[in-house]
Amino acid sequence: MPPVGNYRNTKCGEEIRRFIPSERIKDRLIDRISFASDAGFYRLIPEAVVFPENEEEIRRLFSWCRIRKIPIVFRAGGTSLSGQSVTSGILCDISRHWKSCQPETEGQYVRVQPGITGATVNARMRPFGRKIGPDPSSISSAMMGGILSNNASGMCCGVQHNSYHTTRSIRFVLPDGKSYSTEQREDYSRFFTESENLAQTLVKLRSRILANAALSEKIRQKYRQKNTVGYALNAFLDYEHPLDIFARLLIGGEGTLAFISEAVMETIPEHPFKATSLLFFPDIRSACAAIEPLNAAGAAMAELMDRASLRAVENKAGMPESMKNLGPDAAALLIEFQAETEEELKNQLQIWNEKSTVLTMLEGGIFTRNAAAREQLWKIRKGLFPAVGAVRKSGTSVILEDLCFPLPLLGTAVQELQTLFRKHRYENAIIFGHARDGNLHFVITQSFDHPEEISRYEAFIDELVPMVLRLGGSLKAEHGTGRNMAPFVETEWGAEAYAIMKELKAAADPDNILNPGVILNTDSRAHLKDLKPLPQVEEEVDRCIECGFCEPLCPSRELSSSPRRRIVIRRAIREFEQSGNLRAAESLLQDQPYEVMDTCAVDGLCATACPVDINTGDLVKRLRRENSSVLENKVALELARHFAQTEKLVGTALRLGNAAGSFGKNVSSALRKFSKALPLLPEKMPSSPIRNQRTKNTVSPDYLYFPSCINRMMGSHSSGKGNVMDSFLNICEKTGIRLLEMKSEGLCCSQIFSSKGFSDARDFMAEKLLGEVWKASDEGRIPVICDVSSCTYTLRNLRPALSLSSQKKFDQLRFTDMVEVLHDRILPLLPPVPKVENLHLHPVCSLQKMGAAHKLLAVGKHFAEQVSEPLAGGCCGMAGDRGFLFPELTASSIKASGNPIAYKATIYSCTATCEMALANHYGTEAASVLLLIEKALEG
Fold it and tell me: Which of 202, 365, 387, 918 is the most buried (most CB within 10 A)?
């Protein structure tokens, strides 16, 4: 661990507080450590993390850094794979405030800021049937700043629709504070007068390139294929005016020349007709022979996989059985055709069928248009990276690099790569890639904890670089140059081109403060320095590859920590302990409760995006369990044993709180000044009506109805009309679904105890509930339905908390969710209703984890022409009672989700506590989706 300086606030942080509010500066040790890593295998600890919200603050940061010669690096999603977004200076995080996204010209264009994810932009464009051109596999977490600054492409866009070719205008801020926009005509003349040295340097460099026929042709040739090594010298050939040239140099510039504050992107159609197939070949050359016919037929995607790739996923559920019997040299292509019309798709497939007759295939050629089947096929491709990451040795990094080769030499390149893997002992290495573009990715696992391991990696790279260049390839195709290939930019481009790049950097950033050492680096061993340590900590932590895919779904990502940052903190504690720096370890341990444990919603959505299936919520539950006192565990167990009385007390308290209204909120707020363990009551609360269980006998019930304790304690609708349980029973009765309501007083799914780490109370309640459900369901004959999705999810995953004998009973039980019944059984029976223009829905996190969020949306579409939901998805942060204890978690999560509610409309969901959180945040009503259905059935 390098020196980390102060443990509380740094000198840099204190100085920056003079011109940026303190709440947007993080410089405690725990903050600097948690932000020190991106998705790559390098680590630098920043002096401070700053969250600027406008260009003026960017200018002030630039000025401060120039005076003090301190580097500044911009980070958006932090999914960079080669260390482009780490620094020992000022880390400028733009993920919180630069989120504007405005479709223009009926969706033909979209104006974006750098802090919004590509997936969110595409969600905004979906009503227009359009999307942005770049389609990196990290699009759900990669933000537009990184997508532009790394010239992202992806599986489908090739060269034609990458960031460079689909950017129409750019607004940027130079290190000297001057800003320009290629949309403003007056900025073209202003650029010459106010940034004269930079403008004249660009003119001179362009003239030098045009006068050098060999260099000009080399530039044209290198950009006919994917290439992100060095600066985009093609800008000097594609544009004449220095402002246009410089703006395009920023694409792929990795934040080393200026800050991109806004861009207008040209969008492309999201084709509605698609056909997908998986083809197997006897060897890699046979697979590569299919690429030319695929391109001729107009294939949108052609993903190449070597035998090692297929072996890594062949045992996954849903994989073709024949994969296990492929020969040692076999390969595969996952191909997809896309079209605007059915006729166009048929023509593409016909051309392919005619051209593929001369190919040598083992199996394949059957295309599916079924969305579920297509998604299953793409799981093969998407599962490659995590398959290697999941089985790697603890303490090793996962290195994902990308290369590009001329198509005729692609097969040769794969074979030579495989030879290098064997020579340098990378036994688990795999190769896959976008074959249509000659773009190969390879994944290796590498330890950096011993000098001999670093030497092994050095020897591998020293042979890889000349091999790629000998075959006419690019050392980087779409991931940006980064620290890993910066020492080899001159090797690929030659002395003249490299000299031009150095002059460009010196003219744009004379003080060398913008991301120094990235793209251009004179240190031939820079790629072997500042390597990220990965000490062994605990099972969940050790599997993490720090990719950041989890972060967009985390409720606390803008409040305290994200899953990635929680894991980075755990690793740092162990690293400090091992190195003997106990003072630093103690500093992290002091701040850990709030940053890591208290503000985690433990909703588990992070696992749905994690390539290696880590549920950081489970890690936090265990930490809570390990940190809870004997007394706290005893109290929790007593509450579980007397849960019927607990339920009545809570219900009474909620009724009193609801009656008190704002007075109750004020009283609870005053009490919280003495103890943060006391809940903060919101103004809008369910009325928690007293309700008696229905006693009507049900013959041959379709379901056993288990009302959740949430709805038993706070089950009223926000409108105050009735309660959730009666609404659900009435709806089922009117639609002919027979329910048997079980006696549920004193029973709970156990989530309230497990989320807090009280394992004894959880196990007691799980056993008690299982026994009652077993009897009430006629020993599993009747499926069990629950009216809160988080409780359904908990019930389905109750097995680990049960004894062996109870597990055998559990295995015979069937649990279903209320939303699933609404969609599968009740929706087809609903009468037509006049549709409203727009309906706001909030699919709760457990519904998303169960893969049933689309069913809630389908129900909403029965009542509205358009259904809107949170753009960024995720959890509202209520997490049962967590929002009562830490209301700032709910406020931060809902704000970050980007729910586009423009007017005081009712928000519909399927969990009372989440509805309450939404209502209080937006100052509007939130209610169960049952109200819509009940009203429709009433006619």
Answer: 918
pLDDT at 628: 87
Whether the CB-CB separation of 475 and 488 falls below 8 Å is answered with: yes
Model confidence pLDDT, tens digit, residues 520-552: 999 999 999 999 999 999 888 898 989 999 999
**CA–CA distance, 308 with 442 (Å, rounded to integer):** 11
The burial of 795, by beta-carbon neighbours within 10 Å (0-12 exposed, 13-18 middle, 19 or more buried), is given as: buried
**Above 70 in pLDDT, residue 668?**
no
Q: What does the alpha-carbon distance between residue 266 and residue 160 come to, in Å, rounded to a whole number?
A: 12
DSSP-derived secondary structure for 336-370:
EEEESSHHHHHHHHHHHHHHGGGS--SB----B--
Angle separating helix axes 213-222 and 495-508, nearest 10 degrees: 80
> Helix 662-672 to helix 643-660 angle, to the nearest 10 degrees?
120
What is the C-alpha to C-alpha distance for residues 97 and 650, in angstroms, rounded to an integer?
39
Q: Is the pLDDT of residue 66 over 70?
A: yes
Residues 856/847, Cβ–Cβ less than 8 Å: yes
Q: Where are the beta strands (DSSP E) in 209-282?
A: 259-269, 273-281
Residue 412: DSSP 8-state: H
Closest CA to 62 of 519, 518, 520, 508: 508
Residue range(s) in the chain whose domain bears CATH number 3.40.462.40: 273-479
Which 3 state secondary structure label does DSSP give 169?
strand
Please list, in sequence order, all residues whose beta carbon lies within 8 angstroms of the beta carbon of residue 600, skipping any fewer than 6 positions away. Answer: 556, 561, 566, 616, 617, 620
Tokens 């919520």, located at residue: 617
The rounded distance, in Å, linking the Cα atoms of 53 and 244 is 26
Q: Rounded mean pLDDT of 747-762? A: 91
Q: Report the relative pairing of strands 301-305 and 430-434 from DSSP bridges.
A: antiparallel
Cα distance between residue 213 and residue 694, in whole Å: 87
Please tell me the class of the 273-479 domain: alpha beta
Q: What is the mean pLDDT of the chain?
A: 89
- The number of residues in the chain equals 939
**Per-residue pLDDT tens digits for 165-214:** 999 999 999 999 999 999 999 999 999 999 999 999 999 999 999 999 99
Residue type, 743: K
- Of 22, 33, 12, which is closest to residue 89 (Cα–Cα)? 12
Architecture, CATH, for domain 823-938: 3-Layer(aba) Sandwich (3.40)
pTM of full prediction above 0.85: yes
Band of pLDDT at residue 121, cut at 50, 70 and 90:
very high
Angle at 54 between CA 194 and CA 202, to 5 degrees: 30
Whether 83 contacts 530, CB under 8 Å = yes
- Split at pLDDT 50, 70, 90, the class of 828 is very high
**Residue 845 pLDDT > 70, yes or no?**
yes
- In this predicted structure, the answer to whether residue 632 has a pLDDT above a threshold of 50 is yes
DSSP conformation class of 8? S
Q: What is the 3-state secondary structure (H, E, C) of 98-138?
A: CCCEEEECCCCEEEECCCCEHHHHHHHHHHHCEEECCECCC
Q: What is the pLDDT of residue 898?
A: 65
CA distances from 748 to 254, 685, 745 (A): 52, 21, 9
**Which H/E stretch holds residue 74?**
strand 72-75
Extract the tokens encoding 540.
Answer: 């969940």
Token digits for 530? 């500042």
Query: Which token pair is 538?
Result: 């605990």
pLDDT over 60 at 690, yes or no? no
pLDDT of residue 695: 47
What is the rounded CA–CA span in Å between residue 56 and residue 561? 27
**What would the two tokens of residue 57 be?**
């603050």
Query: What pLDDT score does 1 carry?
Result: 63
Domain with CATH 3.40.50 in the chain: 823-938
Cα-to-chain-centroid distance, residue 366: 32
Q: Which runs of E-coded beta strand occur in 774-858? A: 784-786, 815-817, 836-841
